[in-house]
Each structure stands twice: as structure tokens, then as C-alpha cells.
């Protein structure tokens, strides 16, 4: 039975429960999802059944759809259907759905019911991912309308409650350490490109309370490019995260470290210096988040170790003066450089490919790593490379 034929009733748990195969698929996805809050997993007991997971999933989805910036969406059955399809297919994990999916759906619904969508955006069935739907929310024309729709007083309330420490500010950059959800929310909704950071979503309070007690969150704004997807960044060193506004390649730390270094050479060193200079203030303000507050030396050590490319960027070496050649000395012949070994990933071979969402693996031969990656994406066109790991297998 195809997935879109299963959902026929209003409550997603009731719909899934009628199809044992669907319940099993949801159970597999749930058990492999590391973003489910620990307290939710613990509430199921040591050996939950598929039906236990289905019931909890129904509650989680309803909570997500109730708590978005544009009204209660839980009564509209097509939205929980859509989110569940993404989850079972491995296109989104719970953090994506709860942190970003509800707000993206709410924005679409708010514009749709008011007749503000262009004809090409009115057909909900055309959207195949949360990222595609988020384009609606970040469209300039729609964004202005959504700002009028949203409760302006709620944003002002968050601003009044915001607690943060500004660690760096100049004509181009502003960097803060948020100390509560109000800071994350009001900063990200204040204007420009609206990030997909879960800590500033409508359910962001729970995500802030999940991440902040583990270690320091840092938010970066490039004032000159605040309307661009690269204009807002967030990092959390203790959980290996460094992401731009749309969280593209969220799980590829090395890639994002390099991109940050290229876009903002030297900025990470300035951020570290600012954290050091405001260490006492950050420590005092974070004591409500974790016992004793953030250990500044530990946090700085994590930043330096997790983001080596960003830390090294902006360094310029002074040119060395070439020594004068001896007048009557014949230069010795330099030995030939050893021939560089070919990159194994450019050679034919077999790769062990693992889908991160499900944990499923397959051995795929190809002419190179790029060839194998192309085979995977042609087979699953709705996925992306960040959904998989590729490990070369020595024959």
C-alpha cells in the first residue's frame, strides 16, 4: 500500500494504527532517531511496542502543530500526514519536524487562508520537503505579509524577556551568547532572513532548554547580508554544530567550518577573544542554565578544536626574503619529488553506503566516490548527500 493512500482520518495515530506495516515503518524510523528528547523515550519504558511509539508520535505531532506562530494546525489532517510521510521516508528527523516543520506549515496556512499565495504556491501537494516549504516563509513578498500576520506583541514580549551577552560588535558583525529562549526568538525574528534554527522556533523553548545546559550557544549576524541565507549563523561546539540560517549540510561539520572560514576570515578569532573578555558576565548569566555556569576555558577550547579552519582563517604569513645566491657556487640538483599517490576516491571501488535516518546499509560499486553518490541520488532523488555516509571498502 502506497504511503499517501494510508492516511484517511483526522488523527495520525489512529490512521497509522490501522496499518501494521506503517506502524512498523514508523517504529524503525523512531528507534533510529537520535533527536527525540530523552524524557520522551524514557516515558515509553525499556521495550516499547510499535503501538506505544505510534501513540507517542501522535502526541508529538499534535503538539508541534498546536505550537506554531500562526495558530493551531492540529485539526487539519493533511499536515500531520505530510510530516509523518517525511519522517518515515527518512527526509526529516524529529528535530527538523518539531523545530522547523510546524512554523513552515503555519506560514503556508496563514497565507493560504487569506488568499495571499501566488497560484503556483497554492497547491500544497507539490511540496516534497520542509526546505521547499520554507521558501514560502522566506520569500520577500510573503515575508512582509507574514510579519503583519504574526502577533507583534509576542515578539516584543520576547525582546523584553531576552537575556544575552554581546561578545562582538562592529560595523559589519554582531555576535551574542543567548542566555534564554527570548533572546534566540527575538533575534531571529527581528528581520532579514528568518533562520531555521530550532532554538528560535515556536517550540524553541524546549530545544533551548535541551542545548543550552550542555554548553554555550553562539549566534552570529552579518549585518551587510542579513537578508541572505549566509547572513545568520549559529554554533554549539559541544554538539559539533556550526550552521547557517537554512542548516544546509547540518551534519557536515568540516564543510561548514570551511565555509564559515571562507565567508568570514578572522571572525572566529575575534569571537573567541570577545568570549574571553566577557567571560565573567557569561559565566554569571549562565548559572541558571547549568550548575556553576559555563566554564569559559572549556568553551573556548571546544571552539578551537571543533572549528580549526575558521580559527586559522585570516592569518597572513610575512613574505620571507630570498637569500642572495653565492657568486661562484653551482646550485645542487634537487631530487625529483615523489609522485603523488592517486586519491582512492577517484578510483574504481566499492563503498558501504549507510542511510543515516534508518541505519540501512548497502554495498555499491562504482568508478569513483562521485559515481557512487550519483547512483544513490538517482535512485532516491528526494534525498541529498547529507542523508548518507560513504565508506570505501578495501577488497
A few lines on this structure:
The protein is of the alpha+beta class and 395 residues long.
Give your account of this protein's structure.
The protein has 395 residues and is of the alpha+beta class. The protein has 3 domains: 3-149, no CATH class; 157-312, no CATH class; 344-393. Helix content is 45%, strand content 11%. It has helices at 12-17, 20-31, 38-42, 50-66, 77-88, 94-113, 119-122, 130-138, 140-149, 152-161, 181-189, 204-211, 253-263, 267-277, 279-285, 296-306, 308-312, 369-379; strands spanning 164-169, 173-178, 218-222, 232-236, 241-244, 349-355, 361-366, 388-393. The strands form 2 sheets. It has a 5-stranded antiparallel sheet, with helices on both faces. The protein has a 3-stranded antiparallel sheet with strand order 7-6-8. A hairpin with a 4-residue loop joins β4 and β5. α2 crosses α4 (50-66). The chain is globular. Mean pLDDT is 85; it is low at 1-10 and 317-321.
